[in-house]
Amino acid sequence: MSPVSLTNEIARLRREKNAVILAHNYQPPEVQDIADFVGDSLGLSIEAATTGADMIVFCGVHFMAETAKILSPGKTVLLPDLNAGCPMADMITAEDVQDLRRRHPEHTFLCYVNTSAAVKAQCDLCCTSANAVSMVRDIAAQGRQIVFVPDKHLAGFAADSAGCEIVAWQGFCPTHAGIAPDDILRQKRLHPNAVVLAHPECSAEVRELADEVVSTEIMCLYAHDMKAKEFIIATEPGIIHRLHKENPAKRFYPASEETLCPNMKRITLEKILLALQEERHPITLDRETMFQAKKCIRRMLEYRA
């Protein structure tokens, strides 16, 4: 089937089944282009929850589709490729959190949204890369100590920014960890006037070379609002497509074109069509896990701004 035929059939089924298609910023360009909404994982889930859609097709990875299900329990949530996982999310389990709680019984447990529903259900609070610093600062101001899972780099960034100590699980995103300081320095030599925007999942050495360390959604805001005409983007290169579309007069250079997320690239138009045709790979969660995970997420929503 040709790309045009694929797109037309997806559009037909989307209307027929009252479905909404969500695409993460790291998805391939053709997937972003057919989506109803493009953004970060939490923002997409919140957007879908406010629509009248009966079905959500989440073009992202497994924990993102789980979050959408938690926030829209009455909707059918489909993941076009069941093997689209997240290595960082897989670096910690619910049992790991239970063991940490035995070792740190007085600590507040803060988990990154990039975790499974089972892990969220074992934690007190959840955060995004955009609000991690605010949440850590607030928890520390209340005199509470923090265990942060699973990303050691986001934990380090939040601890440094908030001026406190954090017990951090030693997980990481292989894609962001693959961006090296030399990648930034090479791009700065090529584009000396470019502003460097780095994701907080990058290493401390990369973050130190950045002008701003921000989430993907804040990157998009900064790219639009800043007067600068050139940007070096230290995150998964998939976001460059959105940045170009929203800012055609500006130039964007990936810190490294080699640090692709293979799981994000698993989603294709063909798989989206099959998901709609066969309602393939629905996300299911048991009631207790969903209830506990939603409690963990609820407070995070207060810090989105």
Descriptive notes:
The protein is α/β, with parallel strands linked by helices. The protein has 3 domains: 3-84 and 264-284, Rossmann fold (3-Layer(aba) Sandwich), CATH 3.40.50; 89-173, Rossmann fold (3-Layer(aba) Sandwich); 179-254, Rossmann fold. Helices cover 44% and strands 15% of the residues. α6 links the parallel β5 (108-112) and β6. The mean pLDDT is 95.
Number of helices: 15
Indicate the proportion of strand residues. Answer: 15-25%
- Structural class, from helix and strand content? alpha/beta
Quickly name the level 1 CATH class of the largest domain: Alpha Beta
The global form is globular
Report the C-alpha radius of gyration, rounded: 19 Å
Number of domains: 3
Strand and helix order: HEHEHEHEHEHEHEHEHHEHEHEHEHH
CATH topology of the largest domain: Rossmann fold
Mean pLDDT: 95
Please give the order of strands in the largest beta sheet: 2-1-3-4
- What can be said about the biggest beta sheet? 4 strands, parallel
Assign the CATH superfamily of the largest domain.
Answer: NadA-like
Architecture (CATH level 2) name of the largest domain: 3-Layer(aba) Sandwich
* Helix amount: 40-55%
Q: Tally of extended strands? A: 12
The first-to-last residue Cα distance is: 43 Å
Sequence stretches where pLDDT stays below 50 over 5 or more residues:
none
